[in-house]
Amino acid sequence: RCAGRVEVQHDGHWGTVCDDDWGLPDAAVVCRQLGCGAALAAPPGAWFGEGSGPIWLNGLRCRGSEERLVLCRHRGWRPHICAHEEDASAVCSGGLAVLMLTPASLPGAPTVRLVGATGRCAGRLEIFHAGHWGTVCDDLWGLPDAAVVCRQLGCG
């Protein structure tokens, strides 16, 4: 129950969420709403399979601190022009005790670390991608982004 395709119910019908603009802050809200811990990944491209029915939400812009997905900015509740091959997914920390995620095991599941400071919960953010560690640019970086990383690393 803590990893899969994201679906929402609207007007009594279940539908999916398009992965346009989908990211870790959005997955963090889904994980929180389901009581599934921190968001580990926000895989695009129907990673857990294509859904059916309407695609209710598109262009979600969560800050990552919202309690429920419906509180995030989006392009409105309506069937969107988006293919089910773009259904959004979330992977949360809860219920994954046996599953070890590595950078190669799941597209969109980056491994992150903080380096250059004392302790594991402070430092410069690096992300593992394509077999290498790299620094994350701070353009448009803010406290909501830092909060997602802190939760992902189990730092509060």
Describe the structure.
Strands 1-6-4 form a three-stranded antiparallel beta sheet. Strands 2-3-5 form a three-stranded mixed beta sheet, with no helix packed on it. Helix content is 13%, strand content 24%. It folds into two domains: 3-92, Mac-2 Binding Protein; 111-152, Roll (Mac-2 Binding Protein). The protein has 156 residues and is α+β, with helices and mostly antiparallel strands. The model is unreliable at 96-107 (pLDDT under 50). It has helices spanning 24-33, 143-152, and strands at 3-5, 7-10, 13-17, 39-41, 55-57, 89-92, 111-115, 124-129, 132-135.
Question: How would the blueprint of this fold be written?
Answer:
Elements (H helix, E strand, L loop, with lengths): L2 E3 L1 E4 L2 E5 L6 H10 L5 E3 L13 E3 L31 E4 L18 E5 L8 E6 L2 E4 L7 H10 L4
Parallel strand pairs: 3-5
Antiparallel strand pairs: 1-6, 2-3, 4-6, 7-8, 8-9
Keywords: Disulfide bond, Repeat, Signal
InterPro entries: SRCR (IPR001190), SRCR-like_dom_sf (IPR036772)
Protein name: DMBT1 protein
Task: Throw out a few tags for this protein.
Mac-2 Binding Protein; single chain; 3-stranded mixed beta sheet; 24% strand; alpha+beta; 3-stranded antiparallel beta sheet; 2 helices
